[in-house]
Amino acid sequence: MNHARAERAALGDLLLQLGPDAPTLCEGWTTFDLAAHLVLRERRPDAAGGIALRPLAGYTASVQEALKARYGYEGLVKLILSGPAGLYGLVPGMDNAVNAMEFFVHHEDVRRAQRVWEPRELPADLEETFWKRIRAGRRVFLRRSPVGVVLHRIGGGVALGGTRDAAVVEVTGTAGELLLFCFGRQSHAPVDVAGPEEAVAALMDARLGV
């Protein structure tokens, strides 16, 4: 089982365990909303554009609600657990290349929104994969940062991003935690953040991610 499928299975099991009304770290979304989002991005490419493009967000939201009405919560989770769909199931290697990160982040969105949670120790190869993704995407992930950012990976590695010619904040953690930080989960990623007080506050409040 690859990492994408492992994260998918673990998230699906947790969604079934918690039910449709549990909180997530995705602002305004319950577990029901998150399940519909995951099905939409794989099975409704016509509506996926609104995930990243604000002008299309209304249509995406309407399709997401329609999926909830059509399948119900358990039906959506069963679709998630059935495996990658669309291009993710057709193009060799695409599932693990894209969904390992996607399902890890959303798995943690559910885990860390609950009253009791603790960070997981990830497999070394998954940590390495996430660090490669961070290095490749750091300028996109940190493009809305109002300050310069230096990411220090525990175990080795440095990546630079954020605004040039601005105060610099240094963020240190494992690759998994740095990934969550760069995806806008700053307050829920146990990393060390160091720099001028105002710059740190600005970075922690910034809307990071894709």
TrEMBL record:
InterPro entries xrefs: CHP03085 (IPR017519), DinB/YfiT-like (IPR034660), Maleyloyr_isom (IPR017517)
Protein name, as recorded: Uncharacterized protein (TIGR03085 family)
Annotated source species: Streptosporangium album
